UniProtKB/TrEMBL annotation, chain A:
Identification of the protein by name: Amidohydrolase
tRNA processing recorded as keyword: no
Keywords: Hydrolase, Signal
InterPro entries membership: Amidohydro-rel, Metal-dep_hydrolase_composite, Metal_Hydrolase, Metallo-dep_Hydrolase
Organism placement in taxonomy: Bacteria, Pseudomonadati, Bacteroidota, Sphingobacteriia, Sphingobacteriales
Automatic annotation (TrEMBL), chain B:
Keyword presence, Hydrolase: yes
Name this polypeptide is given: Amidohydrolase
InterPro entries registered for this protein in UniProt: Amidohydro-rel, Metal-dep_hydrolase_composite, Metal_Hydrolase, Metallo-dep_Hydrolase
Phylogenetic classification of the source organism: Bacteria, Pseudomonadati, Bacteroidota, Sphingobacteriia, Sphingobacteriales
Signal recorded as keyword: yes
Species assigned in the record: Pedobacter ginsenosidimutans
Amino acid sequence: MKKILLAIGLVISTTFLFAQQTSFPVNGSFDTRPGMFAFTNATIVVNANQTLTNATLLVKGQTIQGVGAGLAVPKGYVVIDLKGKFVYPSLIDAFTSYGLSETPAQQRGFGGQRQSIFVSTKKGAYGWNESIRPETYVKSIFSTDSKKADELRKVGFGSVNVINRDGIARGVSAAVTLNEGADNSVFLKDQTAANYSFNKGTSSNDYPTSLMGSIALLRQTYYDAQWYGKQKDEYNISLDEFGKQQTIPQIFEVDGWQNILRADKIGKEFGKKYIIKSTGDEYQRINEVKATGASLIIPLTFPKAYDVEDPAEARNVTLSQMKGWELAPTNPASLEKAGIKFALTAFGLENSRDFWANIRTAIENGLTEKQALQSVTEIPASLLGISDKVGSLEKGKVANFLISSDNLFKNGNIIFENWVQGKRFIVNKMDVSDVRGTYNLNVDGIGALTLKITGTGGGSTAAIERTGVDSVKTTATFTRNGDWISINFNLKKNPKGDVRLSGYITSANPVTIKGESALADGTTGKFTATYKEAAKETPKKEEPKTTLALGPVIYPFSAFGSTELPKQETVLIKNGTVWTNEKDGILQNADVLLENGKIKAVGKNLSASGAKVIDATGKHVTAGIIDEHSHIAGAGGINEGAQSVSAEVRVADILNSEDVNIYRQLAGGVTTSQILHGSANPIGGQSQLIKLRWGKSPEELKFAGADGFIKFALGENVKQSNFGTGARFPVTRMGVEQTFVDEFTRAKEYEKALSVKGNSVRKDLELDAIVEILNNKRFITCHSYVQSEINMLIHVADSLGFKINTFTHILEGYKVADKMKAHGIAGSTFSDWWAYKNEVAEAIPYNGKIMHNVGVTTAFNSDDAEMARHLNQEAGKSVLYGNVPEEDAFKFVTLNPAKMLHIDDKVGSLKAGKDADVVIWTANPLSIYARAEKTFVDGIAYWDIEKDAQVIKTQQAEKARLIQKMLESKSKGGRTQRPLGDAPRLYNCETLENYSAELTEKEHAH
Amino acid sequence: MHTKTYLFSLALSATSLMCFAQANISPAKKQSKTIAITGATIHVGNGTVIENGTILFGNGKIISVTANGQVPQDDVMRIVATGKHIYPGFIAATTNLGLTEIEAVKATLDFQEIGDFNSHIRSIVAYNTDSKVPATLRSNGVLMAQPTPQGGTVSGSSSVVQLDAWNWEDAALKTDDAMHMTWPVTPRFRGGFGGFGRPQQSPESLAERTQAAIAQLTSFFAEAKAYSEMGKPEVINTRFEAMKKVFAGNEKLFIAAESQKDIVAAVNFAKKFGITPVITGADEAYLIIDFLKENNITLVVKQPHALPNNNDDDVNMPYKNAAILANAGLNVVLSIDGYWQQRNLPFMAGTVTAWGLDKEKALSTITLNAAKAMGVDKTTGSIETGKDATFFISAGDALDMRTNKVEQAFIQGRDINLDNLHKQLDKKFSDKYTAEKK
């Protein structure tokens, strides 16, 4: 009993005993050995900054006793002469799942359908959501894995950090060595870091379904953990553990640089500095990544070239995939150059053997060897807080080291041995005699031949040559086991069939091999091979070291990206038909002057020195289009619909600056878009207003100083008429009403409770958003269709004291336009959509006109990445359906949505002082014949139809270059993958995704 | 696969369809009197325009189309359309119009049968003349359509209908005008089908699946062809029976194919059976224009109001596509996905005009070219002597929403009612507000 207790004590304790004491019993006699070794005459790389030549390393037991040149070897040490060889600290991988059983695949219904599991099904006093599992300690579930350890040791790793990669809060990882033995004997540190991700993993709960939900859940968990420490009402292991783990390092696994920024933002909010494990695309936005200040753990997974031999198939490969193939190997160098601290991991490699090839590729692409070594030794050690034990070869540290034939990073280097905790693991036999050379070979029954042994490790391949009669050259199979050598070859004739030789080295200098021979016809005899001369290796053509010609990084890293963003200029647009959207109406032959991102002047005969003049004769000049209802430029799902209220989620968290739809919509004259949460639940998430600044970072897309909005929704979607299990409340319009009543009632109580001094009210991000609405600090955009529900929400709002800002979709707005008008509610609708579901059976294209005529601020929106490209023509439909005056009609997509979004002081019309968001059209913008020639945002021409033609050409040339390069790579034997494009990702209100499942799937699809 | 589901795509509950207004919009009576429309700009549909032209029509047929303001004999009803435009009725190709009422309500979905080889399936019998949708199309100039079955490899036969009828018999201009099929394809994108929740399929196994589907299709056609040559088969096979017309050249074959490889494969496949197919979809047709011309292929392309197929494509490619093909000399028909959306058909032709195609040629893509593809060009598709008097008068350019203003429309000479549900609801509620104001 005592022994068991002690054993547990050992595991839990943070100091580990590397002496040879043990609490474990032995079956039989103890075999305790001195374990003292002296490695002499070696080139010892103590760390990346210090290399000792002709030096000695002393090891006793698990510990390094000394390192130095001219170190005396005390008695009792086994001396291993490493003349000509190298000693390095064994490598450390900061990101593995070594020694953990594979997490079971996510149990989900068919087709990703939700299962309506609202709270945790896990046994125990844990938190409500299974994806928050900080209670998971690797130290309690780890078990050594000889096979995997062997694989990693062969690569050169001596210790690893073990992470249970399951959930959003994943619990505590541990560092272990790759030694064999009892589980407790390999621990370096039992609590290296608390771990996080955006992937809910095996959690059976529906929530969160989206990336923004994952972010919101994590954010709420931070608050909950803070609250937990101060309260007495609830017992909750998960929150308790979460709180306790805040003082150790924090590792966050993400995919892609945008998620680095997202994780970092959460970190900043809660004063955390995460170590971020990402996926190796950081070079695409190195400055933004650098600005986070985060340390990174980066994989060496470089995409395989695409097989582009068939031009028809090659068309499927995108520019960003091609450039990604070319530039991914530059990522480590790029990080080094930027001065970002990073560790390298073998995680994600298809085959761990690729590790060295890929690290060399990274070095060819500019990574220094010094940095490479640090990134696999000292840096991971310091990130994990195990620098006192591993990462360099110093007295007192754990004896984890490699013996290699050469500089570790040199092509052809052989790792002979990997010592872990003072235990020797042989990777390649060290002291094989060199048998490479050309031999006179005499085989009974055949006669004189020439044998050539070449290759690595003192000889690994062989070739046979016969000159004169029946001259032949052939390769032979060559196997060697110590001094025993066998060679098989086939001379085609004289004799026919395989000749098998089997013998041993009889003399080392000169090398002589003797043994038995067997011919195909069964005759046996003898053979002798006598060393003649050194083998002339077929002179391998040293590839002339071409300086790697690489394409530039473009922003965004996708088609239509550019190396340099268009610049803000002073622009004078002359002599156009100018739709001011102001009192002046439509001005003929008028000018618009843009300066410093603002409209400087609108009028006739303007002039400005130094301005770039654009002749707009015969053209129309308008304010940029504003899309009140858009779902572009988002990542990881636009609906968080697992619960009926998700006011805590924020589109601001998941902006995606790389979405090509930004560019496509600029081409349709759109300059500002409200990115809304979807309509899967009555209270959705918080919206984000953006400007279409193509090429800028996600943060830079945000419309500065705009009011916050939130998405509400009514009708078929929120009651899940056409999807889901029907188990989530509400399923009727009656229930929808009560969802709002309940939420607002609770929010009021919450606000009241918060106002009490010294309260211990749990901060609730969901209710915070509702309180903001009640205080007119956040505004509602409500998806709605039929008049009954519209009327209902107006009543709920009146009775609970909040305002509805905008009804969006609002296809039956025409039936309640008077009520909307009376309440000052705006209507943002579709021009002509109907019949796609039951609640739009009476949607009519005259809706906009009627609302407008009644006096409702009316807009047309897209909710669709395609329609947003021609919202001007959608506005034109209000002329067709209802004869709305053209000036008013165009305001449906400019000034009116600006009013709804409270930004009409900045955008929506052409007026001095407003933002220079301007479009030049070839014709009346309401006409089907109008094309946008230039679209300015902040005075920057992000869309220019002429420049676009050039961009397309440049892009084609760049693709052609990359295709050539991939073909070359293939012909040189490089591995390839089938050209499959990235499927376009388009969101509308009704798109349901399962973000975590997709992440997991992507990983398995490699 | 994008693990995404459209909320309305899985209509599991069968909601009973409510009936709304519109019961008072009756199909128009037969033309009783010969009519002459004078003074208008006549957009013939074949690429030509007649300024100040006169159309004379009687018994539902066009008697003459003349230029220079000729005024016909006395005993006709006259419509003066000076300054106005006359267009042939637009034809909505490959649509599920009349085969569905509400996309999200399963009970109203009658366009997609189960099974792979549904050559015996016929859309005409499900075409609902009482649907509220056609009237909303007519008022924008869409007067004919080709309700088309979908799904499976061979989906069945479409028919051509006019949009003002008491029942499907009245509506039919040509029954079973074309057999529709979809060329089996391997997904181009990562994920693909297999998708979420199911094990990922390797590209190889997906390609194999495609090959198997093509093999099945080939044997279906081969056996159907052999069957069609039998005098009296021992066992009647309704699927093969339905293919007889296709082999005999009395029914067209429309094949949906998108990528250049698939289009070439589809055309060559049809040619083996002596058929010149019409290719629908045809996203990558612009890459193989010569091949298509050599084989005299008509294309039914998708709406220009679409997103580019590939991330890297010219952002305006969908707008330019039809013009590129038509300017190269191919017979191009414009279509739109869906049914209620068909009222935007004229504006699709307008878009094509904006992006490079001559306006009258763009008009042909929704009139005469469509009629040719469906084999009804002898009787309709353009304003020419002897054809059906199916056309409309617009106050302005009908291809532009700014100016499309359909004032009067004739289907086979019948002066049709241009009212529709939407106009009625507009009136109902506009009247409410006007009344309240007073």
